Amino acid sequence: MIKAARSIGDADVYRAEQPGATSLLVKSYRQRPLFIRWLFARRCLRNEYHKLAFLRDLGIVRVPQPVALPDKDTLAMEFLTDAVPLNTTWRTDRQPPQEFFSKLNDIITELHRRGFAHGDFRSTNVMVTHDGEPCLIDFATAVCRNPGCSCVEQALFPFFRRTDLFAMAKIIAKFHPEMLSGPQTQRLGSPPWYLRLGRFLRKNVYRRYLKQSFEG
User: What are the chain's domains?
Assistant: First the structure.
């Protein structure tokens, strides 16, 4: 197991080895209550599988290759053996150069232009490949506004786009603050209201009640 669920809404994450084949990363909600699985977990797994396939075909950014949905509560994808989390480079004082973040910013801009928003974009969901290229992970809540996408996704797109842009500014401020543009500095000074609301709910409701009940 790579990571055990820390709350009732989290998946357990495993690494599965296949002899002579690609290592797999497996997300599973099978140990969560049925209500949680029915309410959102299964939707998140299906959404991530389809968004990974969309990005694979788009070819703009490296993402884990989707492999299968073995059952309603499990998702299997490629395990990225040639990449490390961006956050670990900061902790070891070996962060990527400015060119990496310029490329990451260009990727997010192009994804938005193509009608795609990550929605949970942050430094923990960015990987650095061994050759110094950006790689994105964790697309459970990603949305599209392209034809054929649900009206809910299309309605959420502008909000998630603003979330991505705010997160991009935070990442640059953390690693290379001298790179911040004027608009990015302004975004840091005025986070979207729904992000402020989300932080309040996580601190005062989720962590105080839901997470404690899961751990207890």
Answer: 12-78 (3.30.200), 83-215 (1.10.510.10)
